[in-house]
Amino acid sequence: xxxxxxxxxxxxxxxxxxxxxxxxxxxxxxxxxxxxxxxxxxxxxxxxxxxxxxxxxxxxxxxxxxxxxxxxxxxxxxxxxxxxxxxxxxxxxxxxxxxxxxxxxxxxxxxxxxxxxxxxxxxxxxxxxxxxxxxxxxxxxxxxxxxxxxxxxxxxxxxxxxxxxxxxxxxxxxxxxxxxxxxxxxxxxxxxxxxxxxxxxxxxxxxxxxxxxxxxxxxxxxxxxxxxxxxxxxxxxxxxxxxxxxxxxxxxxxxxxxxxxxxxxxxxxxxxxxxxxxxxxxxxxxxxxxxxxxxxxxxxxxxxx
Length: 305
Ligand SMILES: Nc1nc2c(ncn2[C@@H]2O[C@H](COP(=O)(O)OP(=O)(O)O)[C@@H](O)[C@H]2O)c(=O)[nH]1
Ligand SMILES: [Mg+2]
Prior knowledge:
The chain is α/β, with parallel strands linked by helices. It has helices at 2-15, 30-38, 82-92, 113-123, 137-142, 149-156, 171-182, 200-213, 219-227, 232-258, 265-278, 293-302, and strands spanning 19-24, 42-45, 54-61, 64-70, 103-109, 130-135, 146-147, 160-162, 283-284. It has two domains: 17-191, 3-Layer(aba) Sandwich (Rossmann fold); 200-260.
């Protein structure tokens, strides 16, 4: 018996497949990228109690097989329903039967950089390594935008890999970046070089709430509990903690209001300040709006006769 358990113990770490999760705003090319990375090795599933689909597949990087999860597209990780909670639960490793991802691939639409990075700032608070796949660069170029991926990577302190998902361009570089990020020791939180900073008053309130809830509630959820008025996390935790918790949250929000950092506005303010900082000088816009296909079509149509 001793020898068979010894074998199991030595085999287990080698057979555990690393997992990468794809996260992004809707229409950023997430499914296209998922298909390009996983090919036909994929299946669609639902977690119990939710209606959104989550696709799972596999990809191989330098001979190592990775599990790949395509999470439902979202603009923000501020869940209002069990459906919107799926991405958060999976990334926090709280989804039953699902391994916590070793790396999150944030797909970012280069033609809409600032808005897309809002979700990225939230991902940085989840303690999991993040790699940015900068997609839709051809669309950005078509709009006359020049996006400096290297500068963004430097300023943001994360790998930023320019890709074109629908043409399968640069996916090898993305895979290598995923493998490098996945090598981060599991169980050790990933601390990004540069995170958005929230006012002290907000940090103090989250710490007090964390003390009430206990260390088993991830810090990310405590922050969301405070930020998301009428949000799903409040609903879920209320089941366990009753009226006293919601009274405490309400009192904390009141104090934040008085301290000049009202929720939820404080979140957008802090995140957009960070976004402005990390995108400074990254996007070069055309001095004159280029002539688009629509303009040309308009011209043809208005000179028809
Ligand atoms: N021009 C361009 N189109 C892309 C690129 N990546 C994906 N697409 C297209 O964008 C559309 C939305 O992609 P999809 O993968 O469904 O986006 P999702 O909603 O994020 O899953 C599809 O028509 C894709 O073919 C890209 O890099 N450039
Ligand atoms: Mg999709």
